[in-house]
Design a protein that fits this description.
By secondary structure, this protein is α/β, with parallel strands linked by helices. Helices cover about 35% and strands about 20% of the residues. The protein has 17 helices and 26 strands. The strands form five sheets. The chain has an eight-stranded antiparallel beta sheet, with helices on one face. A six-stranded antiparallel beta sheet has the order 5-6-7-8-12-13. α7 packs parallel to α12. The radius of gyration is 26 Å and the shape is globular. Bound molecules: fructose -6-phosphate. Fructose -6-phosphate binds next to α8.
């Protein structure tokens, strides 16, 4: 939700570095984008910003370059916006500056006391040019610059004081004209520092060797991953100062903080499209690899054991999550119940406002980004009530990973498309392994043995689905339907919800998912001969038989039925179309069925020409409540 990239030390390459960084961050928001540069001797920070996607800004910069008028400087920062305060517009785009143009700020998050600050600053003569909460920050810094104690040679104290007055959530980067240093601070929003290889020895907050290379501040690692793999994850309340000499991180008290430089282990190529038309399609096809990574070293089929780096055997489990991750949480809760552990999944935004008693519960936050504000709030609420917490996340060093007692990484590799695909499959797989590890502790050995070989075969089975899917042809048939319905039972209920969410978010078509048995309690009224119903039916047990009953209910109302099935239940007798998956136990069949539904959603949206990787109004990382 809003993306920041800032750098010092890249010389003439600064502007290109920023634009490259923005191109890697626009999954965080794409309402508008802007850059600000300054260099030694400048009186003002030069800002260029435009409403719209990054290409709009690129065009302006290219024209400026052709005219020899591009913004120049060795210190730069840039921002891609997801609007919270004020509509997408040039004026509301970041960076924002003070009245004099000396101070520029980029910000991610929400300043909750911005109205009070704005009133105070306006009364002191500050003129605001945007409707944003962010704009109060440069004006506040300007105000402090005008104070008697301000030393123009060192703006840091004034910036720290301004940051201390902010309430709410923020990651901010501040640039001051003519000052070859950038300042960054974070509170409940991510900010990472990228340091050149020679800076590695500077861990511990010591100054690095002079001119060690460029240093970066960003919302997320992909923004600078092409230039360095060495990262410092800033914590809440920390303040970073980066310049050509290196970097320092200090706490609210101004004392140097002991930080550690971590090395990210994924390749910059992982964040490119690799020949696919969209990141979403690439990420759907990356699922076999993502699941292999997720399972690596965790499943010992010979020994009949799951080995995880977390050791839990809870009395009860509460899951908290949002959106697609909530569907993974529903799936995880079902598997824990099957392992004999009472488990419930909560929408994180509801949990935080009306939390259930935690007692001896393990509270598991499922969040691929590890930065979703609603989920973090719920986890903090649970912790404050004494619960042990576990983050199930894709993002090493994310807030959820750092704040929780334990972490289960899903290891799917970076996901750029706004619609979650491979991270959902990896969440299902990691939670499957976690539930198995608990079953193993409880000596439900049969459960474990039966499921281990299915887990081992899962990546290959997903590959088979991808190789043989007829989803594209099917999507062609149903494109433009007035509504799409998805049904499933047990572990297939969350798959039905996820199938509908995926279709609606990227195609903008109306879609709803239901537990199969619920259709007849109301939604059936919406079913017509124009509304396809996707029914997930696997195996040949009692759940399949019951869902087939529900399929017959819609079939007799002339709705086109698409069965997502391994064929064992013979549901195809009542279906107009089949999306086939390999035979697998229900818990892994749920992953396979979902892959077919991802492909349906993708191809419907593609046929409609939708901006699949950046659906309107959405962002990949939702860091506001
Ligand atoms: C939908 C989607 C969202 C996220 C939700 C939570 O495709 O991606 O519904 O699942 O915003 O995000 P995380 O998992 O980062 O907490």
């Amino acid at each position: 939700m809003c993306g920041i990239i800032a750098c010092v030390g890249r010389g003439d390459d600064t502007l290109d570095t920023l634009v490259h960084g923005l191109s890697k961050l626009d999954y965080r928001g794409y309402d508008s984008a802007g850059v600000a540069l300054t260099g030694s001797g400048d009186d003002t920070v030069e800002v260029v910003k435009r409403q719209g996607q990054l290409d709009a800004l690129r065009r302006v910069l290219e024209t400026a370059r052709a005219d020899g008028a591009e913004p120049r400087g060795t210190v730069g920062m840039a921002h891609t916006r997801w609007s919270t305060h004020g509509a997408p517009s040039d004026a509301n785009a970041h960076p924002h500056t003070d009245c004099t143009g000396r101070v520029a700020v980029v910000h991610n998050g929400i300043i909750e006391n911005y109205q009070a600050l704005r009133d105070e600053l306006a009364a002191n003569g500050h003129e605001f040019r945007s409707e944003t909460d962010t704009e109060v920050i440069p004006h506040l810094i300007e105000e402090l610059f005008d104070g008697p104690e301000y030393d123009p040679a060192d703006p840091e104290p004034a910036i720290r004081e301004a940051v201390a007055r902010l309430e709410g959530s923020f990651a901010v980067v501040v640039s001051v004209a003519g000052v070859e240093t950038l300042f960054g601070a974070r509170q409940d929003n991510p900010l990472v520092l990228g340091t050149s290889p020679r800076d590695a020895g500077s861990a511990g907050g010591e100054r690095s060797e002079p001119r060690a290379g460029a240093t970066y501040l960003a919302s997320d690692v992909p923004a600078f991953r092409a230039f360095t793999d060495r990262v410092v994850y800033l914590e809440n309340g920390e303040f970073a100062r980066i310049d050509a000499e290196g970097w320092t991180v200090t706490g609210t008290d101004g004392e140097v903080v002991q930080t550690s430089v971590e090395t990210v282990d994924w390749d910059p190529e992982d964040t490119g499209k690799s020949g696919y038309d969209h990141f979403m399609l690439k990420e759907i096809h990356e699922q076999p690899r993502a699941l292999r990574q997720c399972l690596q070293g965790r499943v010992d089929e010979m020994g009949g054991r799951v080995t995880l780096d977390v050791d839990v055997d809870p009395e009860r489990v509460q899951f908290v999550a949002c959106g697609t991750s909530y569907h993974a949480a529903l799936y995880g809760a079902e598997l824990f119940r099957q392992a004999g552990v009472p488990a419930q999944a909560f929408l994180a935004s509801e949990y935080a406002t009306s939390p259930p008693p935690v007692d001896d519960a393990l509270v598991i936050g499922v969040t691929q980004s590890g930065e979703t504000a609603d989920t973090l709030s719920a986890l903090r609420e649970a912790r404050s009530r004494g619960a042990r917490t576990l983050a199930c996340t894709n993002t090493v060093g994310s807030t959820a990973a750092r704040e929780c007692d334990d972490v289960l990484y899903i290891r799917s590799g970076p996901e750029i498309g706004v619609a979650a695909t491979k991270t959902f499959a990896a969440q299902q797989t990691a939670l499957n392994a976690l539930a198995l590890s608990v079953a193993q502790e409880r000596r439900r050995a049969g459960d474990v043995r039966d499921s281990l070989s299915a887990l081992r075969e899962l990546p290959g089975d997903v590959q088979a689905v991808l190789d043989e899917s007829n989803a594209e042809a099917l999507a062609e048939e149903f494109v433009g339907a007035p509504s799409y319905f998805f049904i499933g039972r047990g572990v297939h209920f969350p798959v039905a919800l996820e199938g509908a969410l995926k279709l609606k978010e990227i195609s903008y078509g109306h879609a709803e998912g239901f537990a199969s048995g619920e259709l007849k309690h109301g939604p059936l009224a919406l079913v017509t001969d124009e509304t396809p119903v996707f029914a997930v039916v696997t195996g040949d047990g009692p759940l399949a038989t019951k869902t087939i009953g529900n399929v017959k209910e819609v079939e007799s109302r002339d709705a086109p039925v698409v069965a997502v099935t391994d064929g064992r239940s013979k549901v195809e007798r009542y279906a107009d179309h089949v999306l086939e998956i390999p035979e697998a136990p229900p818990r892994t069949a749920a992953v396979l069925a979902n892959v077919q539904l991802q492909l349906v959603a993708y191809h419907v949206a593609d046929r409609l020409g939708r901006p699949i990787d950046k659906p309107r109004n959405l962002a990949k990382s939702v860091t506001v409540e």
